[in-house]
Here is the input.
Amino acid sequence: MIMDDRQFFSIGQVQNQFLNPNTPKVGKDTKSLPTGENSFASVLNKIQDSADNNNSEASVRFSKHALNRLNMRNIELTREQMERLNQGKIEAGEKGIKDSLILIDQLAFIVNVPNNTVVTAMDQTENNNNVFTNIDGAVIA
Here is the structure.
């Protein structure tokens, strides 16, 4: 095996090296990595920054179990209730709550805050004993 001091930093450089012999060779006289606005590193950083900034504000999603409960109990959420549910999840996250009970009007939701997921939902009037387990905080939204 023949070893040389060539270093390749991108697929484009490898393609240029072997498919376009007239292009400059990789070495000290060429740029090491593309740094433009559309470079891989730039795009990746934008996506990661966006995910970090929006993680606490991402809309909640509903688990299959929660969707079944909503359907079975004929619970329909208005846009305003969904906004309050999302705001309650944000407030719970700001307080460090991992599994929160969020009360909206006569509705109760158990939300896994780190995963932005509603785990279950119920109408408070049908819960006879008003006992909620496996939560570490509550938000009244």
Notes: The radius of gyration is 26 Å. The chain has two domains: 11-54, 59-140. The beta strands are 61-62, 99-104, 107-112, 117-123, 137-140. The first strand starts at residue 61 and ends at 62.
